[in-house]
Write the structure tokens for this entry.
Amino acid sequence: MDFLSEANKIKEELINWRRDFHSHPELDYELFRTNEKITEFLKSEGIEYTITAKTGICAIIKGGKDGKTVALRGDMDALPLIDQKTCEYSSKNDGKMHACGHDVHTTILMGTAKLLNSIKNEIQGNVKLFFEPAEETTGGARLMIADGVLENPRVDAIIGLHVNESIEVGEIGIKEGVVHAASNPFTIKIKGRGGHGAHPDTTIDPIVIACNLINTLQTVISREISPTDPGVLTIGYIHGGTAQNIIPEEVKIGGIIRTMNTEQREYVKRRLTEITEGVVSSMRGQSEVTIEESYPCLYNDDNIIKLVKDAAQSLIGKEKVNILQSPNMGVESFAYFSLERPSAFYFLGCRNEKKGIINPAHGSLFDVDEDCIPIGVAIQCESAIRILKSNF
């Protein structure tokens, strides 16, 4: 099948789906309308499915011949943001917006399902469809994996994509190796001894301690990690005090660590704790450090990403497949899947300056050139078929 030609034949339907999702964004696991729309579609296509991870969906297209099983992932949730675009499909749900393109990802997965289901008797193996909730929050992928979506039948490889407003529509971006960072949110409580602002000598000032600690923590990345290894340690908030003339009892600091490999991740976490305990105790205070285990690094498998690259080049041309050199310091819950099975994750261009589609993701004016949607459908279809036929 010429997947690009077939995807363009259903382009109007794809755009209608996308605009419907965009107009009715939902957050986290509360994707009740979104879930209903997708399951209605799956029923109409005769595609088997189960509900997973609260409002997530795992569907399967069983091929007419025995073979491997490949999974395709599309995330569904929106962001808590006011949509400031003026268009017929802007958000109807106050304070909620598809500002990261998950409406597009869901649409692409549905379009991919439609085309592959139409030739299911020719497919050698199975195609699983993962509609993931809560990608923007806690990562629905973890619950989906715990629910067993990678088994029965066992998934051999997984493909994911994400729209990217810095890549021109009609093109894609592929990064080999590490694609996205791991993250570790943290909080630090510094306890001192409060008192009158006029008599600091009778107190243990947690604000002064916090200032020293923040400055010292910034040396972990700049002086203890190789300059060739990307890493970030960001302080996002500092809370403490109630009045100008009162030295408080306690200060809270919050931030996040982003790293690109397991060794670096463990090192920075350890040094965060060591430095905090050392600085705070040296200034007569007490500290409590809490480090959360959040999204891991996202790794592209060499064999699977090559198959996706070859599939994309056959559809849109070699010159439109950009090989990216630098990883993204942001996080992506697809990483949980990439730790479990050989995976490929790539970026679908959605930028079009002529149409004014230049605004960044997670912004209130974000939009995509919808010409990217059939391209995404075609690449997902072609990639899935090539993986099922391969001997990776």
Summary: The chain has a mean pLDDT of 97. The longest helix spans residues 262-282. The CA atoms of residues 5 and 131 lie 25 Å apart.
